[in-house]
Sequence to fold (463 residues):
Amino acid sequence: MNDAATMAGLDPATLTDVLRLAGSYGFDRIQEQIRRTGGCSDPIHLQGSVVVRDKKTRHVLHSYSTDTEPGGRLRVACGNRRASRCPSCAWTYAGDTYHLIRAGLVGGPAKGTPDTIRDHPRVFATLTAPSFGRVHNRPGNRPCACGARHPEDAPELGTALDPATYDYAGAVLWNNHASELWRYFTIYLRREIARAAGITQKAAHEQSRVSFGKVAEYQKRGAVHFHAVIRFDGPEGPGSPPPAWATLDLLTHAIRAAAARVAVDVPAAGDQPARTLGWGTQLDVQPIGAFADGEEITEQAVASYVAKYATKAAETTGTVDRRIGSKEALVLLDVPDHPARLIAACLDLHALYPDRKLRDWAHMLGFRGHFSTKSRRYSTTLGALRQVRADYRAAQQRQALGLPDPDDEEATTLTLAHWTYAGHGHTPGESWLAANIRRDIQHNRELAREELPGLLAMEGAEA
Fold:
């Protein structure tokens, strides 16, 4: 607690709680708990106990109870993927997403996919929304249509040039149906592959598979677009080579043809006309280069890009990361004009399209789908990656306590555990402490990342 300069800027209530916390019994243990969560912003509080016994002798090998913890509670990380809610847990989620996407590009036995998938045709595709009206932008070296040259961080970027003519209703309805547009795209993609190969859909299915991993991202104008890794596999999935006709050019052609075919009809309701929703014309399909052989789109770059946006949502456009019940709340929350108009459109359209749940998803500007998804055979799963991490930490704990591995055939231990939910969150002082711990952890990671190239170079020179 020696960060006096930082503490000097605290509000009185937080400062008072920091001083109370620093002088409280068990402060070191509270600090250790927060550090073990990575500085989680909203930890889950648990109460309970664990007892490990020898099955034969019934002798207690280890016991733990939260009765010995400060306040009688154990803090565990919340696991929220949103960086706006918990930067610490979002960093972990982004790391898992990185490894999931990368596993589908480079393979590896530990990730459930063979490394031969590097030889499969694969592309990085970006599917966008159509135009709903002209917005402020940065068109290369030319000035914006408003006549100004906007800097990269200009707040007006992505906002409507003329709010009176911008189709806010169309924008949120498109977001609301974006997941259906993607579903139809995957259906048409398989059909277009068969058509381009000159074979039946049944034959194409028997000879090949198409796998993908995707993430949703919000553009500055508030429209969702999808980034996807799309890969050709053989009939048995990633472990089998694709047929000779399954080329990169054929895949690229099929993606463009499938995107052009997608159409989702929205019926007229009230003052809203009938609409046919489809993908925008700005479709980008780039081959992914293996081993970074002079390619701009590399495996690591793609995985990093997807992971980056897996933890972000509509709040990047200026809205909030929780539900909004009324238009009056927009003023209280100080939501900027452009996202506020999109949210208001969701609230107005809810009565016309009640089955679309636009009021519930107004803070997401209408989008109600999953932010990251993958096909079944693309690669490993987030659950499997988390289990590996949990098993590793459990093994570390057992080693530190001198306990045998429960998976060992000769092990004779029995673990009895009981946990109950006891709340969540921090006091103001704990929040300040968690933020500082999170900052220190991030700083150490950045230092390690900067030192890594030098260490690798040294190892290469010694070898």
